[in-house]
């Protein structure tokens, strides 16, 4: 899977590059590509520092106690007043001094990054499924204008509102490079906003255990220049392109007859199932099945033949197609741009 390269971190992370290489990349909260993630990362580093110092302090005190016990030094080195002061300083003042600043900054950062968006901000509705993401783009009136799955595009530099839902178990929407997590709860709509300051392909991951394939419930968030985004959305709004060749016509027939249409919609055809992802523009997507495999012919064929091998336990059954049927079906699906 290839992700477009985006900003390399500088400063502390840059200086200790080899050690901290794991902090960079398309799914790292420490490689921020937006203001919200930047604030979160700025809070994270001092938290790590203070937590490290506190851990070292506690471990050193423990080491002192262990060594003293070994030497059987039983006499108290401190008098009553000294030990009371030690308890007050180490048990009350130090913990408060170490945690209150973090509580306050965490609270104020939360307020900044979740400030309400302007009413006319673009709105995307995302529904957590087992184990994939259903994605709807809404117009100003809240009507769905385009539907896709597992790949969300947004324009760079513009705040986007996300309405997060679930009709099954609890999931959590998380694009670490851009924002913290927001849960998706059955029966309610949680709202978050995301702004990407740099173009790139970021990886989102379900962050609340939701069953067998929770780990393979991922998606890509593609942040692109506004013109490219507008062109993409215009494409996604269209019904599927009609089959161009006889082979594609045959492939469409296989799709309708092999039961696929009962679970998948292809807008512009009679296929209107909603158990699985909308396939109207399948060929425009980079990955399949919750960013599990790249969307290439071999993977697509492997997925359709035996989805349980690729993502065990997922809700798509294997299909029994002849090699000719599979070939024409693939030809049809790959024409759905
Ligand atoms: C019982 C319902 C069901 C049937 C029948 C079914 N699918 Fe699926 N399909 C699903 C589900 C659910 C997923 C999502 C699986 C996941 O990612 O966890 C899926 C995923 C897919 C995907 C990946 C889409 C994406 O963007 O990630 C493709 C392609 C696909 N199915 C094609 C087919 C074809 C072709 C057939 C017919 C041979 C078929 N499906 C039959 C339920 C079904
Ligand atoms: Cu999930």
UniProtKB/TrEMBL annotation:
Which Gene3D superfamilies does the record cross-reference, listed alphabetically? 1.10.287.90, Cupredoxins - blue copper proteins
Query: What PROSITE patterns has UniProt attached to this entry?
Result: COX2 (PS00078), COX2_CUA (PS50857), CYTC (PS51007), PROKAR_LIPOPROTEIN (PS51257)
Q: Which reaction does it catalyse?
A: 4 Fe(II)-[cytochrome c] + O2 + 8 H(+)(in) = 4 Fe(III)-[cytochrome c] + 2 H2O + 4 H(+)(out)
Please give the residue ranges the record annotates as the region Disordered. 297-322
Q: Where is the Cytochrome oxidase subunit II copper A binding domain?
A: 119-235
Cytochrome c domain location? 246-337
Protein name per Swiss-Prot or TrEMBL: cytochrome-c oxidase
Its ancestry begins with:
Bacteria, Pseudomonadati, Pseudomonadota, Gammaproteobacteria, Oceanospirillales
Underlying gene: coxB
């Amino acid at each position: 899977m290839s992700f477009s390269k985006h900003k390399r971190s500088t400063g502390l992370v840059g200086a200790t590059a080899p050690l901290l290489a794991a902090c960079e990349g398309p799914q790292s909260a420490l490689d921020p590509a937006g203001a919200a993630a930047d604030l979160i990362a700025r809070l994270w580093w001092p938290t790590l520092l203070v937590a490290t110092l506190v851990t070292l302090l506690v471990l050193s005190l423990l080491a002192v106690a262990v060594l003293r016990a070994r030497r059987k030094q039983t006499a108290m080195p401190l008098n009553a007043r000294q030990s009371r002061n030690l308890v007050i300083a180490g048990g009350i003042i130090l913990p408060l001094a170490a945690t209150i600043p973090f509580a306050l900054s965490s609270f104020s950062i939360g307020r900044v990054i979740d400030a309400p968006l302007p009413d006319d901000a673009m709105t995307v509705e995302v529904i957590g499924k087992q184990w994939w993401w259903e994605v709807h783009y809404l117009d100003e009136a809240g009507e769905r204008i385009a539907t896709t799955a597992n790949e969300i595009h947004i324009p760079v530099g513009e705040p986007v509102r996300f309405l997060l839902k679930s009709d099954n178990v609890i999931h959590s929407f998380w694009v670490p490079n851009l924002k913290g997590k927001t849960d998706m709860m059955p029966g309610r709509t949680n709202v978050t906003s995301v702004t990407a300051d740099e173009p790139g392909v970021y990886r989102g991951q379900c962050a609340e255990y939701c069953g067998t394939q929770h780990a393979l419930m991922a998606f890509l968030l593609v942040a692109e220049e506004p013109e490219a985004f507008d062109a993409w959305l215009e494409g996604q709004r269209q019904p599927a392109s009609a089959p161009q060749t006889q082979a594609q016509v045959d492939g469409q027939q296989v799709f309708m007859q092999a039961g696929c249409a009962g679970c998948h919609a292809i807008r512009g055809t009679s296929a209107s199932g909603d158990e699985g992802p909308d396939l109207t523009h399948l060929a425009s997507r980079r990955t399949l099945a919750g960013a599990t495999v790249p969307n290439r012919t071999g993977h697509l064929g492997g997925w359709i033949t035996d989805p349980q091998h690729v993502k065990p336990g997922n809700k798509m059954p294997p299909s029994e197609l002849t090699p000719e049927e599979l070939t024409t079906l693939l030809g049809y699906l790959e024409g759905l741009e």
